[in-house]
Amino acid sequence: MSFALHLRRNPLSAVLLLFFLLVFTSPACAAKVLIVGDTHYALVAEVASEIQLSLKSNSKVYATSEVRGRLAATVDREAAQVVVALGMEAVGEALRLPPAIAVVYGLVVAPPRNNRQNVTGVYMSPPVSEYISTVRRHLPAIKKVAVVGSQGLMKSLLGGDSALVEAYQVASSSDLVNTVNRLVDTRALLLLPDTNLLTASAMSSIYLFSFRQNIPLLGISEANVKQGSLFALVFDPKVVSRQIGEKVQTILNGVDAEEIPDSPPRKFNLYINRKTAHKMDIELPDELLRKAKKIYQ
User: Fold this and answer.
1) Is 215 exposed, middle or buried (0-12, 13-18, 19+ CB in 10 A)?
2) When comparing pLDDT for 159 and 180, which is higher?
3) 128 in helix, strand or coil?
4) Quick one: angle between helices 200-213 and 173-181, nearest 10?
5) pLDDT, tens digit, 9 for 90 and up, residues 115-129
6) Domains of the chain with CATH codes
7) Model confidence at 7: pLDDT above 50
8) Are 169 and 154 in contact (CB under 8 A)?
9) Model's pTM, two decimal places?
10) Are 106 and 47 in contact (CB under 8 A)?
């Protein structure tokens, strides 16, 4: 008996088939949001999951390796409106999409440099102003902070002028070390987060300079604080996830991505190395210590 004849003789089967087709092939079941990233990393998987929880619309998570070179086809198949790209490789894939598809980036150090429209996102690094604000409020004895980094990160993170800041652009790790070794008159060092510059060898030399000259290094990660930086401001993954989710929802509500400013995290976790402060005779006020997520002794 043919399938068509079976349906004519069994109306209930026909109704069930129609229901299945309507429900499971309906555009309503398509993912309006695709989240792409290296999900084998725990941090990326955590952020992707938190973003999904924050969204009101259907979403799907893809590992970057699943869609490498095929992201546009995946977007078409899912009828997605927004792609969330977590990490530089995912961002690189997403920025090649047609501009009609909104891209929201995350888990990158600074805003990606590109000319594509319909892009916004949340970058991980604290603006220099966050460090300066912490120094002004809690460590007023530090009258000068030398900020050292690449030209690109200077443009992204330095922001407005500050009387406390002296900026130094460098182009290589050796240039970084040579520049830092000349900064004997500064009162604190802040190195902008460029992995091409902050090699293990360069950091070893800079920590040696820091302790010899009694000039504290302001870190960019908890690991830096463990190694001897005075303190570090580190992004909070849950806060970043919520911010990304808010941007995505705003886009789905009809706002163009380029109308939504790129932004740093709204909150940073503070890590402090009390041993470094003691060695350098730096007094840490109780108010600052209370703010710390973790204090290394």
Assistant:
1) buried
2) 180
3) helix
4) 0
5) 899 999 999 999 999
6) 24-123+237-259 (3.40.50.2300), 128-235+268-296 (3.40.50.2300)
7) no
8) yes
9) 0.85
10) yes
